[in-house]
Design goal:
Layout: E1 10-12, E2 20-21, E3 27-31, H1 37-47, H2 59-63, E4 80-89, E5 92-104, E6 115-122, H3 133-144, E7 152-158, E8 162-170, H4 174-182, H5 192-205, E9 212-219, H6 230-241, E10 246-251, H7 259-268, E11 273-275, H8 279-288, H9 290-294, E12 296-307, E13 312-318, E14 338-341, E15 345-354, E16 379-388, E17 396-403, H10 413-429, H11 439-447, H12 457-472, E18 485-487
Parallel strand pairs: 1-18, 6-7, 6-9, 9-10, 10-11
Antiparallel strand pairs: 2-13, 3-12, 4-5, 5-15, 7-8, 12-14, 12-16, 13-15, 16-17
């Protein structure tokens, strides 16, 4: 398989979450994540005939690429609704799968508040490729055509230095906006730090109170002059988010794509990260999901689950490895966490091993006693969720007990789809977590579903698994592809 074109791509090194013994560590705490960039990026690699590096695969971003139809809240007064499902794990009936769904209140596009957007576009020489600047220009043109008179658009570019291409302009002056995009050309080195500073300056100049204020950074992430240290760039963005201006990052291209930087900047910038590999993906992110991409309805959303050791012997959180929080971070409103946009859907999966199951993974401890009987009314766990409303600094708390009586005999179709996607991510990373559930079981499960597939995403998913099966073959090759840059 071809590997040369990914030799300088950068992915943060990470290990899968371990299995925890509930009696030793009953609490699991993490920040939600609405990013989807990993799935689209891996789709691009498989389409190119490449074996994706293990660290390019983030299970939560695979899972959250798809819509599972979680129940929505009735009004914006409670910005989102939490739902849960408990069923036998498809790969081992002696274990259980817990699905947590969070659905944000959907705001119709016509009623979105005024938007102040700054397109921050990388026009350096590394962007001179059909899958980079040309695709970027077409993608932003789609978004520009959705704008209204009350919206404001600025365009900032950066190469060896940063420059203003379009000052704040009403969204209904589309000819000017599209002409400015069309004039962009690639060339020079990449001074991303200066570009970010100028973009935030323009966002502050056109700031809309009680509106959407956001910088949308589009790049392959190859910052090589000016402020090039990742930590310094993160600090720059983190300082700017305090002014109420969010940052979304859109990744483009191959060969020198810096996934690690693009994801981190979005995380600290109170935004989201997506990867654009096709015009269809651009339409999904910038047109169909425009409300959730632009308008934040809940900030710093954290989840903490306390499992009952009398009923749950072991548990494992699937994905979210770089979103884990300390126990004390949950109630600390100064700790940053993920945000939810209008209509956003977030899904998390836990694999549980009930007490008495023959499928326990951790050997018994010599000196540990039996788990005490705790909990009320047959609760297997208690789910707590904290969030802040926009422009508020104090978090709200939601609690949802999860009862043993809620166990379904058979997982619902949405859960089976989520399980298939999670298993696909694991198989791409080496296939160590799912009891021999491999390509054929994933394909058969996804094919057997009757879920609505109006956008063809499930059919595309099946095709990706089939392609991966042919390209990768037998499971067992674990770890990053040789030559791929992986950062600590």
């Amino acid at each position: 398989m071809h590997q040369a074109s990914v030799d300088t791509e950068k992915y943060a090194e990470r290990d899968d979450n371990p299995v925890h013994r509930t009696s030793e560590q009953p609490l699991s705490t993490f920040s939600i994540d609405v990013d989807t960039g990993s799935y689209a990026n891996v789709r691009r690699m498989l389409g190119d005939g490449q074996r994706p590096p293990a660290d390019a695969v983030r299970a939560e971003e695979f899972i959250n690429y798809f819509d599972y139809g979680h129940a929505a809240p009735a009004s914006l007064a409670t910005p989102f609704r939490v739902s849960t499902e408990l069923a036998p794990a498809p790969w081992n009936a002696q274990r259980q799968l817990l699905m947590i769904g969070i659905k944000g209140f959907d705001v119709p596009k016509k009623t979105l508040p005024p938007a102040n957007l700054v397109f921050l576009i990388d026009t350096s020489g590394s962007m001179d490729s059909p899958d980079k600047l040309p695709l970027l220009k077409s993608s932003f043109s789609m978004l520009a055509k959705q704008l209204r008179a009350q919206d404001r658009i600025s365009i900032v570019v950066y190469a060896g230095s940063a420059g203003l291409v379009l000052p704040p302009t009403p969204g209904d002056r589309q000819e000017e906006i599209l002409a400015a995009l069309d004039r962009l050309q690639a060339g020079g080195s990449t001074n991303g730090g200066d570009g970010i500073r100028l973009a935030y300056a323009m966002a502050k100049q056109a700031y809309v109170k009680n509106g959407v204020n956001r910088v949308i950074l589009a790049t392959d992430g190859d910052f090589n002059v000016g402020t090039v240290d990742n930590n310094a760039l993160e600090t720059l963005v983190a300082d700017q988010r305090k002014s109420g201006i969010a940052l979304t990052t859109l990744g483009f291209g191959r060969g020198n794509y810096n996934d690690e930087l693009a994801e981190k900047l979005a995380d600290v910038g109170d935004g989201n990260h997506a990867y654009i590999d096709t015009l269809q993906e651009a339409r999904k992110v910038l047109v169909e999901e425009m409300g959730s991409t632009l308008m934040t309805i809940a900030r710093d959303v954290k989840i903490q689950i306390e499992f009952n050791p009398a009923l749950v012997a072991e548990y494992r959180l699937i994905g979210y490895e770089n979103r884990l929080l300390k126990r004390e971070d949950f109630a600390n409103d100064k700790v940053d966490a993920g945000d939810i946009g209008a209509g956003h859907e977030v899904t998390a999966l836990y694999e549980l091993t009930p007490v008495g199951s023959t499928a326990m993974r951790l050997p018994a401890l010599r000196y540990a006693g039996s788990a005490p009987a705790t909990g009320q009314g047959g609760e297997i766990a208690n789910l707590k969720l904290r969030y802040k409303r926009p422009n508020e600094d104090r978090s709200q708390l939601i609690e949802t007990p999860i009862r043993r009586s809620s166990l379904r005999m058979v997982a619902s179709e949405p859960m089976r789809m989520a399980a298939s996607v999670a298993a696909f991510a694991d198989t791409l990373r080496g296939g160590s977590q799912y009891d021999g559930w491999g390509w054929d079981q994933i394909i058969a499960t996804a094919r057997g579903l009757k879920l609505d597939d109006r956008w063809g995403q499930r059919a595309e998913f099946i095709g990706l698994v089939e392609r991966a099966k042919v390209q990768i073959g037998e499971i067992g090759r674990v770890g990053p592809v040789a030559g791929v840059a992986v950062s600590e």
